[in-house]
Task: inverse folding
């Protein structure tokens, strides 16, 4: 894997199924890949103190967050035998039921993608400065705590 420049992983709003399907389809010509694994983070309609989450509004220190995503990507390629990796994260409002995080890893072998994907998602949750404001149906809100 060659060193890549820092990419902007952010997309405005929810990550749609067409985008996800297109990303998967683009890998059919890469015949050295034997396995893919995908993580789709979806906004839950959690019930918190009697209030239902209607959406999450995501914000980030974009420049710093993109650097962290890049560092996680580079560390993952150093640790696992991957062919490629794609990460996309939403900014702005994402309604309950919609996708806010899409991580897609590929490798010649399945064990590598399973382990790498779990590593990447945990590192994102622990290290990347992305913030979610849980918006309730009554227009009140609270800042989300990652679990």
Result:
């Amino acid at each position: 894997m060659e060193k890549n420049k820092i990419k902007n992983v952010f997309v405005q709003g929810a990550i749609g199924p067409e985008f996800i399907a297109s990303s998967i389809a683009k890998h059919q010509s890469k015949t050295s890949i034997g396995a893919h694994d995908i993580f789709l983070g979806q906004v839950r309609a959690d019930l918190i103190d009697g209030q239902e989450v209607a959406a999450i509004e995501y914000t980030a220190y974009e420049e710093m967050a993109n650097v962290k995503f890049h560092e996680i990507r580079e560390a993952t390629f150093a640790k696992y035998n991957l062919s490629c990796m794609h990460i996309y994260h939403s900014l702005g409002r994402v309604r309950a039921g919609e996708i806010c995080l899409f991580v897609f890893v590929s490798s010649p072998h399945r064990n590598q993608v399973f382990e790498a994907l779990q590593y990447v998602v945990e590192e994102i949750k622990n290290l990347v400065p992305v913030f979610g404001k849980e918006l309730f149906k009554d227009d009140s809100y609270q800042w989300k705590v990652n679990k």
Q: What stands out?
A: Residues 10-24+31-143 form a domain with the Aldehyde Oxidoreductase; domain 3 fold (CATH 3.90.1170.40). The mean pLDDT is 93. The first strand starts at residue 10 and ends at 12. Residues 62-79 form the longest helix (18 residues).
